[in-house]
């Protein structure tokens, strides 16, 4: 390459030199190399010119009058800020100390006098490369910073929307739930939802999406909507699970899914119903005996299987008041200590075993995790739900499509649900929606749903399926009862449950009569009603509940037909 | 992490071996391991003999492979699983989708 070869891109170069002859010589050389030249004869002029014209490179004599080159270099570097403006010192100095001082002042290189054109051109080009590198780096840094800000903003918005959707339930209000979940857990894909059913049972979901960040939050939103919407309408776990699975399967990419445990905790029936797809074992902790029943992952996660292949079978376990359910995410078991050892199931079991005070169990686990890892992790979810007496039955939180029309007050309707329907369809949410068309009944929707649910399951389980509730006298019998229920329902080929609803106006307001008939053999009504009420037993709570909640209960046709009444006063 | 893929002599079986950590960082390489073959093999084998760790995004990648191999009709074997990996596959019930041994 010739010394006179033009530079890649012409630069504006400031030359500060107090010797007029040297200045002329240098200017000529630099111009011939294709650059624009600004000239100054002392440091002060150089700084002023720099501030005004912003040249890209400076050739600076070290020793000049008014302001020397070193001081001028410091000013220029300060004015240049983050941008790299290379300064090449022109010097006849030979001492190392003086040369080092030039670099300390912000100089980037030297050019010894007398000037060599070849070296000067090469140095200008080398410095220009450095200058461009710095400029590119700054540009990319700013771009990354802008993208990052944008991303953070989007995440904040997503989180705000998500919080509204995810926390519309009772997770923070329910006195019987304790949970540990970091504020960042959402962006690790963890999800915890809880809500009451119309009959006062509690549905809880602990989920864990594959992936992190926004994709997980995006999948979590439809899941939360299905959970809350269907729970409030009285749907059971099987239908909610099917809907969630179908929805996630439809919207998520193939490699994304959601591990989840869904449970229904019923104080009235003293049971917990569980479905676990891909989550680590949770536990039902019996306080009286200290026994723990594992809630094992029996299924594939949500969003993997097609609707046809999806398995919605649940397990049912008995619980006494004060018993607890523990659910946890894999973050708990995968908590690692300084040596990369995992916390693991065994250590968790040891915490359970060592505990003597059930109320402290949650704290014990939390402490054990903290002691083990020595530092906080942000993807741990742990939740404890206690079976507590009597959640008051409240009116459901359903939204009514009130048209302002007066409600229907004199009508009747009958349904017959036959074997194929009984196998896979739960008519209760549909019936409840229908009955809540009657404004006067809305106040009592909780009691109404509870009574309907009890009468329907009696008609199905004891009537159509012929199951004996006395099986449920102990835990083994209890499991056996639900095993038989599943088997018999799967094989059902005949039988029916009929539901008759009659609504009539009364002087005071109105009256709804609900009658259920089943195809079963019936039962000895007087004998069953005469049984002493076993308040903490596993069976026989259904009928006493029905008698508490409705004004009139009558059996006929040898126990195959049951009739209840609900009355309401005139609306204000 | 490294991923090696090899087609059997008759061209009917593709074996993908994963060494080291099988996690999100292997996403691209894992896909390339089966997408780069012009001729679609009849069956797939995922060899986890030298896999030290596996996370949930690795499970997602197995689902992608299963989908690529024909979904319900696919033939995907997961072999040489160590006890840690087996635990993860068991919790997610992936033995219902894959032939695991």
Give an overview of the whole structure.
- The complex is a heterodimer of chains A (572) and B (101).
- By secondary structure, chain A is α+β, with helices and mostly antiparallel strands.
- Chain A has helices at residues 20-32, 43-53, 69-80, 96-104, 117-166, 213-232, 237-251, 330-333, 344-354, 361-373, 419-424, 428-435, 439-442, 445-464, 475-491, 525-530, 541-549, and strands at residues 12-16, 36-40, 57-61, 87-91, 109-112, 177-181, 190-196, 202-209, 258-266, 271-277, 282-285, 292-295, 315-318, 324-328, 381-386, 411-418, 496-505, 509-518, 552-556, 561-569.
- In chain A, the strands form 4 sheets. Chain A has a 5-stranded parallel beta sheet, with helices on both faces. A 5-stranded antiparallel beta sheet of chain A has the order 6-15-14-11-12. A 5-stranded antiparallel beta sheet of chain A has the order 7-8-9-10-13.
- In chain A, β17 (496-505) and β18 (509-518) form a beta hairpin.
- In chain A, α2 runs parallel beside α3 (69-80) and α14 (445-464) packs antiparallel against α17.
- Mean pLDDT of chain A is 85; it is low at 396-400.
- With 101 residues, chain B is an alpha/beta fold.
- Chain B has a single domain, classed as 2-Layer Sandwich (Transcription Regulator spoIIAA), CATH 3.30.750.
- In chain B, 31% of the residues lie in helices and 31% in strands.
- Chain B is built from 3 helices and 6 strands; from the N terminus they run ββαββαβαβ.
- In chain B, strands 1, 2, 3, 4, 5 and 6 form a 6-stranded mixed beta sheet that branches.
- In chain B, β1 (2-7) and β2 form a beta hairpin.
- In chain B, α1 (27-35) packs parallel to α2.
- The relative contact order of chain B is 0.18.
- The mean pLDDT of chain B is 88.
- Chain B: InterPro entries: MlaB-like_STAS, STAS_dom, STAS_dom_sf.
- Chain B: It comes from Pseudomonas poae.
């Amino acid at each position: 390459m010739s010394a006179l070869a033009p530079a890649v891109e012409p630069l504006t170069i400031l030359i500060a030199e107090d010797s007029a002859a040297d200045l002329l010589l240098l200017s000529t050389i630099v111009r011939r190399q294709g650059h624009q030249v600004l000239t100054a004869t002392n440091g002060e002029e150089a700084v002023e010119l720099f501030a005004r014209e912003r040249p890209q490179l400076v050739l600076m004599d070290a020793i000049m009058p008014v302001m020397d080159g070193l001081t001028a270099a410091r000013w220029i570097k300060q004015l240049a800020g983050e941008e790299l403006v290379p300064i090449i010192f022109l010097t006849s100095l030979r001492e190392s100390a003086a040369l080092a001082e030039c670099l300390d002042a912000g100089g980037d290189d030297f050019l010894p006098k007398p000037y060599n054109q070849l070296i000067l051109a090469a140095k200008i080009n080398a410095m220009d490369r450095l200058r461009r590198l710095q400029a590119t780096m700054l540009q990319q840094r700013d771009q990354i910073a802008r993208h990052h800000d944008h991303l953070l903003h989007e995440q904040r918005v997503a989180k705000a929307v998500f919080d509204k959707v995810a926390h519309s339930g009772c997770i923070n209000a329910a006195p019987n739930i304790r949970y540990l979940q970091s504020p960042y857990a959402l962006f690790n894909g963890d999800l915890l939802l809880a809500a009451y059913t119309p009959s006062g049972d509690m549905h809880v979901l602990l989920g864990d999406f594959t992936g992190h960040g926004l994709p997980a939050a995006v999948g979590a939103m439809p899941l939360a909507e299905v959970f809350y919407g269907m729970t409030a309408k009285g749907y059971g776990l099987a239908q909610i699970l099917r809907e969630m699975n179908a929805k996630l399967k439809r919207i998520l990419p193939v490699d994304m899914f959601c591990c989840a445990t869904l449970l229904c905790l019923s104080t009235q029936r003293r049971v917990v119903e569980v479905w676990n797809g891909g989550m680590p074992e949770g536990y039902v902790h019996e306080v009286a005996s200290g026994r723990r029943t594992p809630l094992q992952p029996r299924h594939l996660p949500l969003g993997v299987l097609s609707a046809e292949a999806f398995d919605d079978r649940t397990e049912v376990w008995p619980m006494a008041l004060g018993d607890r359910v523990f659910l946890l995410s894999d973050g708990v078991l995968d908590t690692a200590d300084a040596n990369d050892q995992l916390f693991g199931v065994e250590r968790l079991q040891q915490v359970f075993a060592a505990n003597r005070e059930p109320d402290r169990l949650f704290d014990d686990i939390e402490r054990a995790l903290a002691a083990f890892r020595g530092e906080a992790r942000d993807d741990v979810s742990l939740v404890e739900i206690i079976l507590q007496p009597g959640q008051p039955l409240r009116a459901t939180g359903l939204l009514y499509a009130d048209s302002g029309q007066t409600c229907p007050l004199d009508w009747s309707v009958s349904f017959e649900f036959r074997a194929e329907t009984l196998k896979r369809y739960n008519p209760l949410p549909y019936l409840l929606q229908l009955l809540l068309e009657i404004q006067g009944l809305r106040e009592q929707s909780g009691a109404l749903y509870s009574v309907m649910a009890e009468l329907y399951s009696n008609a199905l389980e004891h009537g159509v399926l012929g199951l004996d509730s006395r099986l449920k006298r102990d835990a083994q019998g209890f499991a056996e009862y639900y095993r038989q229920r599943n088997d018999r329902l799967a094989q059902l080929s005949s039988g029916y449950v009929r539901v008759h609803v009659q609504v009539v106006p009364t002087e005071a307001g109105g009256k709804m009569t609900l009658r259920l008939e089943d195809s079963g053999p019936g039962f000895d009504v007087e004998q069953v009603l005469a049984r002493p009420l076993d308040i903490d037993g596993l069976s026989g709570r259904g009928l006493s509940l029905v008698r508490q909640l409705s004004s009139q209960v009558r059996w006929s046709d040898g126990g195959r037909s049951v009739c209840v009444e609900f009355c309401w006063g005139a609306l204000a | 992490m490294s991923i090696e893929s090899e087609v059997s002599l008759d061209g009917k079986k593709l074996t993908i071996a994963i060494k080291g950590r099988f996690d999100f960082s292997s996403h691209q390489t894992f896909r390339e391991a089966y997408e780069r073959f012009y001729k679609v093999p009849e069956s797939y084998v995922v060899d986890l003999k030298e896999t030290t760790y596996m996370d949930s995004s690795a499970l997602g990648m197995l689902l992608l492979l299963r989908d690529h191999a024909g979904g319900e009709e696919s033939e995907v074997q997961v072999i040489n699983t160590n006890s840690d990996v087996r635990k993860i596959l068991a919790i997610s019930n992936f033995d219902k989708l894959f032939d695991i041994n």
